[in-house]
Amino acid sequence: MTTLARLQTILINNYPLKREALAPDVLLADMEIDSLGVMELFFSIEDEFKLSVPNDKQDLKTIGDVVDYIDRLIAEQHGAGSAIDTATGAAS
């Protein structure tokens, strides 16, 4: 399963959203996810991806930005060989 698909599942489980409405270019603000919602999303991301999300301020505006951020954290925390190609789901 790709990073995008896993993130979509998290969003579907926490918000009244449909998978087809969760394309990479969709703005978080358009989904009415505020800063508190982003914090809650990060907790779910930590659980799903077994990551530690730093408290630093990130400029994440779209679903694609979040996917890229997750992939970057995976590479940093689990080694570069663990990064997942967001299009194919294959490890890179």
What does this structure look like?
The chain is 47% helix and 0% strand. It contains three helices and no strands. The longest helix has 16 residues. The chain is globular, with a radius of gyration of 12 Å.
Please describe the structure with a list of short key phrases separated by commas or semicolons.
mainly alpha, disordered C terminus, Non-ribosomal Peptide Synthetase Peptidyl Carrier Protein, Chain A, globular, 47% helix, 92 residues, single chain
- CATH-scheme architecture: Orthogonal Bundle
- Integer tally of domains: 1
Main pleated-sheet profile: none
Question: Would you tell me the overall average pLDDT?
Answer: 85
CATH superfamily: ACP-like
Helix content percent band: 40-55%
Q: Which secondary structure elements does this structure contain, and how are they paired or packed?
A:
Blueprint: H1 3-14, H2 35-49, H3 63-78
Helix pairs in contact: 1-2
